[in-house]
């Protein structure tokens, strides 16, 4: 059973974060969720990531992954990560919306293969970059 706040306890306030604050929080965690369209339906996949100096999101994936078709077509995706404390109802959430594209240049591929180790035990030879076009972030505070 999930803990419910008492009726007399004030709820958390939601504070909007700017782009810089949002990307800093995102860079401080290594896991999030990428959302995209596959066969005309929404799909969400947990993945680990790195944030580039430009604020773009880089993830690795495997051959045959549905995300590769989206990235090959440079379609719009969303990336989300958060840290929410269920007991205090505080934390933060950041979403990055932008186009996904496959990284194919050998030197850049090599760099991201070195920087980003996949969490799962399978060959993750493909790299996808999500261009951070729209960044929104919120902090929940008491």
Give an overview of the whole structure.
- The chain has about 140 residues and is an alpha+beta fold.
- It has one domain (about 30-140): Pnp Oxidase, Chain A.
- Helices cover about 20% and strands about 45% of the residues.
- The protein is built from 3 helices and 9 strands, in the order E-H-E-E-E-E-H-E-E-H-E-E.
- It has helices spanning about 20-25, 65-70, 105-115; strands at about 15, 30-40, 40-50, 50, 55-60, 75-85, 90-105, 125-130, 135-140.
- Strands 1, 2, 3, 4, 5, 6, 7, 8 and 9 form a 9-stranded antiparallel β-sheet that branches.
- A hairpin with a 2-residue loop joins strand 2 (about 30-40) and strand 3 (about 40-50).
- The longest helix has 10 residues, at about 105-115.
- The radius of gyration is 17 Å and the shape is globular.
- The two termini are about 25 Å apart.
Descriptive labels:
Pnp Oxidase, Chain A, alpha+beta, 142 residues, single chain, nine-stranded antiparallel beta sheet
């Amino acid at each position: 059973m999930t803990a419910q706040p008492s009726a007399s306890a004030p709820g958390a306030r939601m504070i909007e974060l700017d782009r810089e604050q949002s990307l800093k929080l995102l860079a401080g965690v290594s896991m999030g969720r990428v959302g995209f369209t596959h066969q005309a339906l929404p799909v969400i996949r947990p993945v680990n990531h790195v944030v580039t100096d430009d604020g773009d999101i880089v993830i690795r994936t495997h051959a045959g992954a549905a995300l590769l078709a989206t990235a090959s077509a440079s379609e719009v995706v969303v990336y989300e990560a958060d840290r929410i404390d269920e007991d205090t109802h505080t934390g933060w959430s950041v979403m990055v919306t932008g186009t996904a594209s496959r990284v194919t240049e050998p030197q850049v591929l090599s760099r991201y293969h070195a920087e980003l180790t996949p969490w799962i035990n399978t060959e993750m030879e493909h790299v996808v970059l999500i261009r951070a076009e729209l960044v929104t972030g919120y902090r929940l505070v008491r």
